[in-house]
Amino acid sequence: MRLETPEINEGGNGIGASSPPRNPLFSNYDNVQAEIPENEKEERYPISLTALEILKSYSSLTKRLCNSSEIKEVTQLENPTLRGRKLSTEEVIRIAGEQYLYNGENLSLQFNPQLSNINNEDMKNIELIHLLLSSAEKIENKHFDRAKSLLMVCDFKSSPIGSPIQRLVLYFANALWEILERKTGAKSQNPTTTQETEDDERILMGFHPATMAFCKVVPFMKVLQFTAIQAILDAMGSSTRIHLIDLEVRTGMQWTVLMQSLSGRLDHPVELLKITMVGNSRAWMEEAGNQLLSFAQTLKLPFVFNLVVVSDMGEEMREKLPMEDGEWVAVYAPLVLRSMLVKPHCLENLVEVVRSLPSNIMVITEVEGKHNSPSFVKRFIEVLFYYSAYFDSLDAFFDSNDVNRLVIERACMGKWIQSMVGREGEERKIRHVGVDVWRQFLKGLRFEEVELSQDALYQASLIVKNHRNADSCTLEMNGKALTVGWKGTPLHSVSAWMCL
């Protein structure tokens, strides 16, 4: 049966690109940037981008940018698609940014005729983002007393159970407070929103009910997992001795889909499926392995599970991997490479180990973000736009007071924002670069990108269509990689690679 070709649009990566870390591995990729054609910008973003593009091109948010001859006009809201409807979180930030460029800290929205079509709730959200931008600028310019006053207002007006903007500002303000405390000793009077709990590790590993609810309700992770699995199935063909190396310690439940597919083979039945999970947490890997072993038994599938406990994914991993002759080998790296950007030598070691294996394919899923600029302001703006889309999506899939949503926003997104915005140097452990940077990096190490099949793209399209708010979830091709995003903002990517 011929599968229907999914509707996946050719498109770019969004606006702007942050510089990757300045080290020998990434030094040639500082200017990697995927541009969106002007006509496509107008179609995808009804609000003018002119001012925001300039905002992200400069190293400061100062008012003097308003005098730039490149700024032709402020946001116009005559577009009928905007009149009388609630603005998205990203649109609120774009308007607030443009108004900030023109008016600086002194904002008067009530008397601005160009904003007359915006409802009161969105006006309050624009004002709140304006306060946040002002706070970031004051910290950048070392006006710490004024930054403290502005952040106190942000604390008062933000909320962990409010609108997406109120939630977003809560976590960004928390990150700015961390900078302020480091510089001056000043502390927020709000309870620490990202304080660690005993459940945090379980949440990040995927074993917590909140993580499971997120993966079930929001389609992004399913798209990545099913597309990756289909890419592996496409590459293995009729192989009967299969070895999957999973570089991320999680539940491993994505492999049950692949196991079901293999158990249904009528010709070329599987002689042995071996899954090796690599990581530094024996307890979590054993829990995942026991679940997979139990599932394989129900399918009567010949199955072996190995766990490799390593402190780093270098030579130690190479020596411990249980490799055998005659195996078809796939390496799966879900959201793994980003964790090594803070230690580039570890990243290089991992990729060299993968190259040395008799692997037939490596499938990578990553955050499609450009959050690694050495410039604080540029990084702040990039992270703000990225998480504006993510918080907007959570608002579409969860109720405001849903406990699972609150857990994910606090334990995952809040902590990642705190790391990317509030910390510098090696303390900034959370870093993201886009698929364009990964592409150049891997090509430089003699990997060749593999085209995703129509079956893989169909799986992605089908998952999106089977979820609520399918029209807002966007699938785009970036070269041979697939990106999944929200209302045109790419959030994650999946790509497949072979060693040359």
Automatic annotation (TrEMBL):
Residues 287-319 are annotated as: Leucine repeat II (LRII). One of its GO terms (cellular component) is nucleus. Residues 1-28 are annotated as: Disordered. Keywords: Transcription, Transcription regulation. One of its GO terms (biological process) is regulation of DNA-templated transcription. Residues 422-498 are annotated as: SAW. Pfam families: GRAS (PF03514). It comes from the Eukaryota. InterPro entries: TF_GRAS. GO terms for molecular function: DNA-binding transcription factor activity; sequence-specific DNA binding. The keyword Mitochondrion does not apply. The keyword Cell division does not apply. Signal peptide: none annotated. Belongs to the GRAS family. This is Uncharacterized protein.
